[in-house]
Amino acid sequence: MIIPRGPLSTTGLVIIVGLVVMVLFAQQYAGSVFILAFTYAIVTAGMAVQIGFSQQIAFSQSVFMGLGAYGVALLNTHLAISSLLAAPIVMVASGLVALLLGSVVTRVSGLALAVATIMLPLIAVGYVSSAGYLGGSVGMPLASSLWSAATPGATVLGNGLITVAVLGAVVFVSARILHSDIGLELYVLGVDERTAAAMGVSTARRKLELFVLGSMFAALGGAVYAGTQLFVPATLVSPTAELSLLMMLFVGGRRSILGAVAGALAIQYVSGASSWVSVNILVVEGVLITVVLLVDPEGLAGIAASLTARLRRQAPAAGVPGAGDPAAGHSATGHPASGFGRSWAARAGGAASPGTPLVECVGIGKDYGGLRVLDAVGLALPARGLFGLCGPNGAGKSTLLGVIGGSVSPSAGRVLLDGAEVTRLPPPQRFHLGVSRTFQAVHLIGGRTVLDNVAVSCLRSHRSGLAAGIARSRLAEARDLAMAALEYLGMGRLSGQEVSGLTLENQRMVEFARAVAARPRLLLLDEPSSGLSEPQREHLKDVLRTVGGMTCVLLVEHDLGLVAQISEKIYVLASGRLVFEGGPEEFRNSAVVNSLLVGI
Amino acid sequence: MLKFGNLLVAGLVTGSIYAVFAVCVAVWYRVSNILNLAVGDFAMAGALGVDNLTRVRQWPLAAAIAATLAVVAGFAYAYDQVVLRLAQDGRHRHEGIVITFFFTFALSFFIDGVAKILFGTDVHAAPALWNGSSLNIASGLHVERAGILVLACAVLSGAMFALYIRYTLSGKAMEACGENYLGARIVGIDTRRYRRIIFVVTAILAAVFGIVESPITGFTYISGATISVTGFIAAAYGGFRNPGRALLAGLVIGMAEALLGGYVSAQYADTVLYAILAALVLARPRALGFESAVGA
Amino acid sequence: MSRASVRRRILLAAAAAAVTAALALAGCGTSAGSPGAANAPIVVCGDLALSGPYAQIGETDNWGATAFFKHVNATGGILGHKVTYIVENNQSSASQSELIARKCILSEHAKFIVGPESGADTEAALPIAIAYHTILISLSSGWQTNGYPASELTSWGFPGFYDVFYQDQLASVQQLIVPRHYTRVALLEDNCGSVCLANKGSVQALAQRYGFQLVSTQIDQVGATDVTPQVLAMLAAKPQIILFGLVPGTDSITAIRAIRAQDPNIPISECSACELPSFISAAGGATVMHNIYVLGSMQDWLTAAEQATSPQAQATAAGLKQYFSGMRAAGYTSANELDNSQEGWDAGLEIAWAVKSAGALDETAVMHKLQHLDINTLGIVWARTPSNYENISQVLAAMETINPDGSASLFK
């Protein structure tokens, strides 16, 4: 997994290599090969941001590349606008188109998104082939290139330098975004959309922004293509072209800007490498993609990262440079009077008005098709305290947690927070009201440090647009807050470690820390002790007791002993109904509970 | 009326082509959560292999078919053993649509490239299995014999898989593999074996279908790619998991294409069809069997 | 080792790697000897599709060109210079066609480029040839109907072949429609670009001139799996013959099957490359091919030319005999190879003639000669003028039919 280098060094590398290559080879055939490769790299760099971080593939980039290319061609041939000027015009126009298209398309995800967007190149090919003004199935020539000079060699040099400059700009913007606090949002969005939403990320908005960004860069790539190749073939919008772009991205490394650039260069190099290779290009590419992806699913970038990690002889990608060193001036661990603890206590532990429960569920019902998972469940929790939620498997505990957290919409009933109705409020908004949770399956960002993972819930960027990430990043503030939370939980020493190397127990603790770092007013924990060893459970109990003194904690658990020891009140669900509600003593003695839960 | 009838028949035949590939994609996706984007290329390999053996090397038809299917089966088995096993169970366990369709995508390139070397760039087709001119099923209503075979093949394969999954124990075990990989392994189902079996079976089915279908359209070494895309699309609209629905989706899409061509515009039939399909999946993803977007 | 210096090292290493790779890439590409030396070989570079959708055409073009230049070298070369023919693969892609044109000129120092095969690829490569004053002989059908910018139509690029779509329709009209007094004609054309879609205009013009009616025109999207809607629409207009304006390949098979399913007897003309044994077999055997007319193999063109008496026919026959012996000498002996490799050979003929009549290798002189091409290249009688590169006076094509045993015979 890749952590991007700083935006300046990434961009610097790309620009230096680009300049050197263009100056050396502009007068030769190789120069033009590089220009084509850099042109594709403009598109793939955008794809790395748009696709690389989500599990979502959208097959729309070739269409936007075509939009950019044809747009420039039209402006150039009919309105005599120079390609250089036409490029930004076309990019902005494509952004608007992407905004319209994206707001429809990003409503679905996964396979639905793939299927919906694979229609785009198919429709585009059909349209373009029949559009006389676009040159039909053949394509459209341009009148003038990005740069015009006296000799062909000088023209190539000029075009090449412009292409490198555009690529540099795209790489810079992409890297800035990935490095910013918004970048961290994108990382967690890519790992698991539900977790991201629960941590305050406006998933729908970010997905739309990513779509627009990727599409604009694709259009820019298309504009550069038109301006350097002087001819826009109709095949530019085809599914084959789209698959070719995806291939470049994946071979290079889908989560790496440099990888995306390297992928474009690699495929172009392979295509022209030798006669035998180009004649048998299908076999060569088939084997190449398979081998590269088998060796490392992160492609060439992943292979490069593993190699450099081996050279450094430490765990791969030990954090972004400058990340928190577990030293500097934070207060002692676990002390409730530490800075973190104080600010949390100030934020949580008080309800809107005395006497009103912090959170209240009234008559919650949930049906999935014909299956009734929750039936008239009601509970009320005050602003502070530890509460347990137990029940046999399939009783509806996680569903109820989802209803309170917002990821599940109940079929009946209401959820109230501070007396206000929040039943249909989506998870990111509930997060901002102070609800935080953990999940049964741990979703951490592999390849990032513990500190960064915890910082996900400390981000202040949720309400900012993607563009804000380019301008400034408040990632350092989020990291500081995360560090304070880790210290508070006694996990400070873990902060610089990369999460994939952690044991499951530690990963669960990191997830817990992430939920806590948000200083929630309501903390929902889904089986926090599962997978933990005995000493770890003891430690968890201590932590939970401390935390329960600060805020309201609702804990879904199978470890009845643990629940009975720390909760002040326990709810028991069976087959979707609340069958018990009471303190630990009653819980231990209840006949209903014993018959239900024996053996768990 | 006659025009409608002939269009419907033609649409059913084309739809059967989509349907069979949709079934192959859906069944294998169900058991492995991988999309087989090389399914059209296996079909091409079947057709071109039989053509090469019968026309160039003068083998008898039955032997040519048996040999070609054996090679296809062997290759599919080897590919699963070497590549897919590493991809799914190896050091980097690959999850997510993202990686899992790239391997079969690369496979389709590879098969096409090998086909070019072996069979050249011309158009080929396997010999027709049922010779003769088109049949007149009612006055003025024509259907090609090969078309009838194609339709029969499609219905048979869809029904076969649907019954297998619903009524046999191994069919259910196979389903479990796709639903919950780890869970299936825990209860002792040999997921690896099921995946391999189904991969090989769908490869053979695709090859058989290519042999049956090629007299209608002909194949070149790159024809497989377009077919794989349509198979994927038809499987998607069948919900990806249900071979019966995939079959139906393929037939419906084929008929829609023919009817649109006959009554709206022959030139734009495909474009209009794709626009409709895209609108459908965007408007009602859950009704079509997709999980919709999560969160806000 | 601080992080910053590690990063710097990686940066430098990457830059070095890139430069090395670039140098390696630049080194890939043969250099064809220093031009300008007394008897330096003439370099002809093929910008052809050896992979991708046009590979079938590209391969045959390559065979023809290879055989021609071997034949030239065996008979003393051109003005005493041997010809080095190098073929590069443009992968049926416009961007690659352009790159290959640059490679031919900059790395291989080619004096002539042969190819590409499609309108799009030619349109991409033409400006390069023009910019470097290198003669390019395109093998794409149609020169004025492909949509090339006007300034490029009368410059350093030349058509190496005639507009097959137009000539095929003309042959069908002259040899079938007129003698049989057909009045109702239907047309099925591919959407391969403006040159394909120009079929409609051509047939309409022919209809005016020869007195028949174009009752239905249908468009087939290249690669469509089913054309029954188009076929039903055509047949509803009750034509007596169906004309094809299709790209050779699966489209012809799909169309033939769909038509024969509805009407087993209606004549179909002209089916390109349909006399190939592999095509006949793919279409379902010779019985399917009855009443289908093909502007066929070079062998039948030779037979037809030998049977005719005009000077042009005699010249055609002589040229074709040379083509066959040259192809065989180069090792191309199968029916597929011999039947369809004329385009590459024709391009070679143009080049050889132009250099010989210019008497010098000076590209401007050769280019001016090419602007006045008036030879007979295997049955194409050129009458090129500087304002109309595509002008031909006639094509001595031979129409043939497929016999039940799969062989082809001349249609009289």
What's the quick description here?
The complex is a heterotrimer of chains A (600), B (296) and C (412). Chain A is of the alpha/beta class.
Overview of the structural elements:
- The complex is a heterotrimer of chains A (600), B (296) and C (412).
- Chain A is an alpha/beta fold and 600 residues long.
- Chain A has 25 helices and twelve strands.
- In chain A, a hairpin with a 2-residue loop joins β11 (569-574) and β12.
- In chain A, α1 (7-25) runs antiparallel to α6 (152-179).
- The longest helix of chain A has 28 residues, at 152-179.
- Chain B is an all-alpha fold.
- Chain C has helices spanning 3-27, 55-74, 94-107, 119-131, 164-177, 194-210, 228-236, 250-262, 277-283, 298-307, 311-329, 335-340, 342-358, 363-370; strands at 42-48, 83-89, 112-114, 135-138, 157-159, 184-190, 213-220, 241-245, 268-269, 292-295, 376-377, 380-382, 392-395, 399-402, 408-410.
- In chain C, a hairpin with a 5-residue loop joins β14 and β15.
- Chains in contact: A-B, A-C, B-C.
- Chains A and C meet through α1, α2, α5, α11 and α12 of A and α1, β2, α3, α4 and α6 of C.
Strand content of chain A: 5-15%
Oligomerization:
heterotrimer
The geometry of chain A reads as elongated
Radius of gyration of chain A, taken over Cα atoms and rounded to an integer in Å: 28 Å
Number of helices of chain A: 25
State the distance separating the first and last CA atoms of chain A. 39 Å
Give start-end ranges of low-pLDDT stretches of chain A.
Answer: 315-337
The structure class of chain A reads alpha/beta
Helix content of chain B: over 70%
Gross morphology of chain B: globular
Kindly report the CATH topology of the largest domain in chain A: Rossmann fold
Total beta-strand segments of chain B: 2
Q: What portion of residues of chain A is helical? A: 55-70%
What is the CATH class designation of the largest domain in chain A? Alpha Beta
Provide the CATH architecture of the largest domain in chain A. Answer: 3-Layer(aba) Sandwich
Task: Label the structural class of chain B.
Answer: mainly alpha
Mean pLDDT over the residues of chain B = 84
Let me know the number of strands of chain A: 12
